[in-house]
Amino acid sequence: xxxxxxxxxxxxxxxxxxxxxxxxxxxxxxxxxxxxxxxxxxxxxxxxxxxxxxxxxxxxxxxxxxxxxxxxxxxxxxxxxxxxxxxxxxxxxxxxxxxxxxxxxxxxxxxxxxxxxxxxxxxxxxxxxxxxxxxxxxxxxxxxxxxxxxxxxxxxxxxxxxxxxxxxxxxxxxxxxxxxxxxxxxxxxxxxxxxxxxxxxxxxxxxxxxxxxxxx
Length: 216
Fold this sequence. Notes:
Elements (H helix, E strand, L loop, with lengths): L1 H24 L9 E2 L4 E3 L5 E3 L7 E7 L5 H16 L8 E7 L7 H11 L6 E3 L3 H11 L4 E3 L5 E3 L2 E5 L4 E7 L5 H17 L4 H10 L5
Parallel strand pairs: 4-5, 5-6
Antiparallel strand pairs: 1-10, 2-3, 4-9, 7-8, 9-10
Helix pairs in contact: 1-6, 2-5
């Protein structure tokens, strides 16, 4: 009974310890846990099958485009390119940059490669394609990003980027007037620090930061 009482005391004290840690460690900033990111199984520019499970354990920045997209996709592509240019190659937690193609028909791998060469997209980035209905479910349903093609076949959409953590949780949505690459890299660093430091008692400090909405 005594050992059970001690366990109960410890459990009761944990929230207090968490608040104290939070007060000591401030300023501690976290990104909100928005919702689970959508699951998918698509194909990249090499023809390899890529699923959302392959992204577990790393941070993923998603963008959306099409192989025929012009101005509607230019802003997001520029920001993605700047993030790649400023991203360190030796990060403790890998960062994956993924663009999902919104073509009316599934793009062939060679079409994706030609698009990447035409746009100067780095080979380190993944370009994903798949059945248009599945893509619609992932992008329109899962990421809540509306898009359509007009009568001329031009893609209509607002620029959007999505940041997902290693647990598959959507942590940031960038829409419309996209932030600078440095702002996105700051958010990536926040996710990295949270993933590395959310152990032991420090984990409760991070939970307290979420509880108190300590967002940047």
